[in-house]
């Protein structure tokens, strides 16, 4: 009898930790950003979209800091935090494709990378492996892509003229760092699965 009440309480405690609530807020901000950006008609609208993007980045920074500082890292958080990050990046990439068609490559790389990692994660869990948090290469790729997207979003608002060559260089750099992170994660997944086998 005590076991049946303890398990739901444990699950409830994981769902409603402060870091996980910040992740939920980030996910809810995603459609707000998309609607603001797609329907933007003047500078003020784009600035509002940028503000929402910044709020999402702040929640991303805070959830990890709070989880580590107050020792409230959860398996649920390890799963939904990177998922929220990639959903947000994918949504922003799709929006930026309106102005920067080359951004299509980032959207494709993100999609393939995350689907592949999701499959490998399921394989690892099915074999009894444990979920692991983001690694340094994942964090670097996330921040690089995020900052690149912020720059591409803000540049026109400040009257900065970016050549197609410079824009493409930024976008292809995002592709490269995402592919690097994917390879590193695949190697980690493969080693974890091999240890179990």
Task: Write up this protein.
- The protein is an all-alpha fold.
- The protein has a single domain (2-196), classed as Up-down Bundle (Four Helix Bundle (Hemerythrin (Met), subunit A)).
- Helix content is 81%, strand content 0%.
- It has helices at residues 2-15, 18-38, 43-69, 75-96, 104-126, 136-154, 164-196.
- Helix 2 packs antiparallel against helix 3 (43-69) and helix 5 (104-126) runs parallel beside helix 7.
- The radius of gyration is 19 Å and the shape is globular.
- The two termini are 36 Å apart.
Walk me through the topology:
Layout: H1 2-15, H2 18-38, H3 43-69, H4 75-96, H5 104-126, H6 136-154, H7 164-196
Question: What's this, in brief?
Answer:
The protein has a single domain, classed as Up-down Bundle (Four Helix Bundle (Hemerythrin (Met), subunit A)), CATH 1.20.120. The protein is about 80% helix and about 0% strand. The chain has helices at about 1-15, 20-40, 45-70, 75-95, 105-125, 135-155, 165-195.
Structural shape: globular
Unreliable stretches = 1-6
Total of helices: 7
What fraction, in percent, of the residue positions are helical?
over 70%
Q: Which structural class do you get from the secondary structure elements?
A: mainly alpha
CATH architecture: Up-down Bundle
Query: How many discrete domains?
Result: 1
- Per DSSP, what share of the residues sits in E-state strands of 2 or more residues? under 5%
Please give the number of β-strands.
Answer: 0
User: Might you state the CATH topology name?
Assistant: Four Helix Bundle (Hemerythrin (Met), subunit A)
CATH class: Mainly Alpha
Largest sheet: none
Q: Cα distance, first to last residue?
A: 36 Å
């Amino acid at each position: 009898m005590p076991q049946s009440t303890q398990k739901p309480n444990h699950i409830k405690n994981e769902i409603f930790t402060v870091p996980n609530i910040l992740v939920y807020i980030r996910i809810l901000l995603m459609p707000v950003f998309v609607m603001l950006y797609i329907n933007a008609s003047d500078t003020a609208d784009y600035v509002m979209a940028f503000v929402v993007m910044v709020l999402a980045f702040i929640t991303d920074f805070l959830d990890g800091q709070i989880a580590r500082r107050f020792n409230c890292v959860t398996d649920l958080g390890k799963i939904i935090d990177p998922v929220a990050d990639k959903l947000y990046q994918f949504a922003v990439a799709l929006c930026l494709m309106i102005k920067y068609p080359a951004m299509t490559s980032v959207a494709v790389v993100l999609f393939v990378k995350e689907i592949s990692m999701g499959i490998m994660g399921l394989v690892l869990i099915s074999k009894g492996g444990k979920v692991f948090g983001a690694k340094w290469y994942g964090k670097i790729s996330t921040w690089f892509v995020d900052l690149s997207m912020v720059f591409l979003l803000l540049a026109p608002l400040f009257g900065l003229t970016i050549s197609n060559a410079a824009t493409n260089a930024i976008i292809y750099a995002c592709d490269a760092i995402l592919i690097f992170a994917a390879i590193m994660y695949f190697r980690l997944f493969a080693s974890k699965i091999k240890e179990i086998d």
